[in-house]
Amino acid sequence: MTTVTKGISMFVLAVLILALLVMIVLGFMLGFTHPLPWVLIGVLVAIPWIHDKIVSRRFVKWDNSMSVGNELIDKDHKKLLGMINQLQTAAHYQTDTEETGKILDDLVAYTRYHFEREEQLMQQHHYTGFTAHKQQHDAMVQQVSKFIDEYRIDNTRTIENVALYLKTWLVNHIKGSDREYIPFLNDKK
Fold first, then answer.
1. What does each C-alpha distance from 185 to 38, 68, 150, 182 come to in angstroms?
2. Residue 31: which region, alpha, beta or left (left: phi > 0; alpha: psi -120 to 50)?
3. What is the mean pLDDT of residues 37-51?
4. CA distance linking residue 144 with residue 104, whole number of Å
5. How many CB atoms within 10 Å of residue 156?
6. Per CATH, which fold does 64-188 belong to?
7. Which of 56, 95, 119, 180 qualifies as a cystine partner to 90, CB 3.0-4.6 A?
């Protein structure tokens, strides 16, 4: 969501709240027993709840369906999801470029650390799908590097794309490819 789009959506929300307040006042002119102002008050009270639900959909939450059954790997995945949510927050609330850049750098560094740990485990246990899995990791790092280069050129829209890509990629990777090697590692213990 671009800065202009965010500004427009906040303006529309403010106008909606103002319109509801005016309609409530006018509705009470019909009498305190008339249901219209009370319904409008209910709608007004629901707006923050609805807004929170919409905003929370931007963030990814850990749940047990993402667990791969390995404590170290699950811990890494939780940390990565938290870092992606930090990036999403920075994108949504327009954190300054320097802070956003630091979040991005930390996220990339931790992702590389996690991939190395995962790949080391796979090699230690002679996982037969190691090469294909490593290629997925390498492709993801390449894509994120491309996003970072774009971010250095245009730091407004790109950060949203990075956050969306990372959320989607990581959840799909955890629930897909990572599940393929974990049983193999557990069998080799």
1. 60, 11, 38, 5
2. left
3. 90
4. 9
5. 14
6. Four Helix Bundle (Hemerythrin (Met), subunit A) (1.20.120)
7. 95
